[in-house]
């Protein structure tokens, strides 16, 4: 039977459509996916973009931002991916992110600033500034003990709702008995560090401000960065919600999953939980760490800490080889800062900063006059590879700086 003219045309159209679709798929697949990566890169640092992009290619990140300062000026700031699971809004360099314990570096800097101004002394007893603290075995606790996780109060068992109430948390800490003699050992104070250090600052502040207000007025505004302890309600719309990776969901308890969910609550964002609820952009974290070490933007903004105070704040207060009583690892702490000399040796022996649950980080390498930060909305568990999101990036950066 001969094929009709209409049937013949239909077949040709079908074949043409299939070929067009095939060619279209080849073109689409050959074009690199954009992943919404946008930002600023100075000449010479372009290699960072492709390394950042790999985190989206390998599905490590949903949305993230990375930034660095070199010699007091912005080297690069990039944002990429999506603001949330709806994938309708890009994650950009202005996106605010809750960064868990990366917040501790900001608190450590605030305490160091108080020391520089003569308001606090690391070697002094806490009771000199906070008399009510000296009870139930805590009488001989020093400021340095609190700052280097040696206070003996690593755990606190109160409902999360109480975390939102500063006065209630301070009263609870005053009544507690340390798990070890303060100063005799160290163990990571995941939440309590923030209230302990924060209350010391509040006690000596001549204006009696909240910690968040003091940080804004004495640090953020003068240096021009955004790193909030206690988020203003009018900035809530900029905060990207946290999510757990599939891997981490399988490795943490249901109660911890619920705890993480609590950190997506706007009430938690407005509260002051200084050890864990700091909210910032990557470029602001990198800018803070640069400002601790050097003047910014060609001298327009003067450094926050002088050289002597910075060295004092970043000197180890952890005896060599001492095991952390909570993490059961060898970890070194200065006055609130995590010391990265063993973790990032390529950046120099004085590298310091802090990382946060899920993968955020901020640090400064003074000998390289370099600071770096990474924030993201997808939380990943601890890895035997160290920092898989940033390790390839930092390796190339170190080679670039060490040329």
Write the layout of secondary structure elements.
Blueprint: H1 5-30, E1 38-41, H2 47-57, E2 63-70, E3 73-81, E4 97-98, H3 103-116, H4 143-147, H5 160-163, H6 166-175, H7 192-204, H8 211-223, E5 227-228, E6 243-244, H9 246-249, H10 254-262, H11 266-270, E7 279-280, H12 282-293, H13 307-313, E8 338-339, E9 352-355, E10 361-365, E11 370-376, E12 378-379, H14 391-401
Parallel strand pairs: 6-12
Antiparallel strand pairs: 1-3, 2-3, 2-11, 4-7, 5-7, 8-9, 9-10, 10-11
Helix pairs in contact: 2-14, 3-7, 6-7
How would you sum up this structure, described in words?
Residues 1-30 form the signal peptide. Keywords: Signal. This protein is an alpha+beta fold and 403 residues long. It has a single domain (38-401), classed as DD-peptidase/beta-lactamase superfamily (Beta-lactamase, 3-Layer(aba) Sandwich), CATH 3.40.710. It contains 14 helices and 12 strands. The protein has helices spanning 5-30, 47-57, 103-116, 143-147, 160-163, 166-175, 192-204, 211-223, 246-249, 254-262, 266-270, 282-293, 307-313, 391-401, and strands spanning 38-41, 63-70, 73-81, 97-98, 227-228, 243-244, 279-280, 338-339, 352-355, 361-365, 370-376, 378-379. The strands form 3 sheets. Strands 1-3-2-11-10-9-8 form a 7-stranded antiparallel beta sheet, with helices on both faces. Strands 4-7-5 form a 3-stranded antiparallel beta sheet. A hairpin with a 4-residue loop joins strand 10 and strand 11 (370-376). Helix 2 packs antiparallel against helix 14 and helix 3 packs parallel to helix 7. It is globular and about 60 Å long. The N and C termini lie far apart (77 Å).
């Amino acid at each position: 039977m001969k094929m009709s003219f209409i049937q013949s045309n239909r077949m040709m159209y079908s074949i043409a459509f299939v070929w067009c679709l095939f060619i279209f798929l080849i073109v689409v697949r050959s074009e690199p996916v954009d992943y919404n990566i946008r930002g600023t890169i100075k000449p010479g640092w372009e290699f960072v973009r492709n390394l950042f992009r790999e985190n989206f290619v390998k599905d490590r990140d949903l949305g993230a931002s990375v930034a660095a300062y070199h010699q007091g000026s912005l080297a690069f700031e990039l944002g990429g991916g999506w603001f949330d699971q709806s994938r309708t809004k890009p994650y950009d360099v202005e996106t605010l992110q809750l960064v868990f314990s990366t917040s501790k570096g900001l608190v450590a800097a605030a305490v160091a600033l108080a020391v520089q101004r003569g308001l606090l002394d690391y070697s002094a007893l806490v009771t000199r500034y906070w008399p009510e603290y000296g009870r139930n075995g805590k009488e001989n606790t020093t400021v340095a003990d609190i700052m280097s996780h040696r206070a003996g109060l690593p755990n606190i068992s109160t409902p999360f709702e109480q975390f939102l109430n500063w006065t209630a948390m301070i009263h609870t800490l005053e009544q507690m008995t340390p798990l070890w003699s303060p100063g005799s050992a160290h163990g990571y104070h995941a939440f309590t560090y923030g209230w302990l250090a924060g209350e010391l600052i509040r006690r000596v502040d001549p204006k009696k401000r909240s910690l968040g207000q003091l940080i804004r007025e004495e640090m953020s505004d003068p240096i021009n960065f955004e790193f909030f302890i206690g988020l203003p309600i009018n900035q809530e719309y900029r905060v990207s919600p946290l999510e757990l990776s599939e891997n981490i969901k399988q490795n943490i308890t249901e109660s911890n999953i619920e705890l993480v969910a609590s950190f997506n609550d706007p009430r938690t964002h407005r509260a002051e939980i200084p050890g864990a609820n700091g909210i910032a952009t990557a470029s602001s974290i990198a800018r803070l760490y640069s400002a601790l070490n050097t003047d910014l933007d060609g001298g327009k903004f003067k450094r926050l800490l002088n050289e002597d105070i910075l060295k004092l704040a970043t000197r180890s207060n952890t005896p060599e080889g001492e095991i952390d009583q909570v993490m059961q690892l060898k970890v070194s702490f200065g006055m609130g800062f995590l010391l990265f000399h063993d973790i990032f040796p390529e950046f120099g022996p004085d590298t310091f900063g802090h990382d946060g649950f899920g993968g955020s980080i901020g640090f400064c390498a003074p000998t390289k006059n370099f600071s770096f930060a990474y924030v993201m909305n997808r939380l990943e568990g601890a890895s035997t590879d160290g920092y898989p999101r940033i390790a390839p990036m930092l390796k190339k950066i170190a080679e670039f700086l060490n040329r």
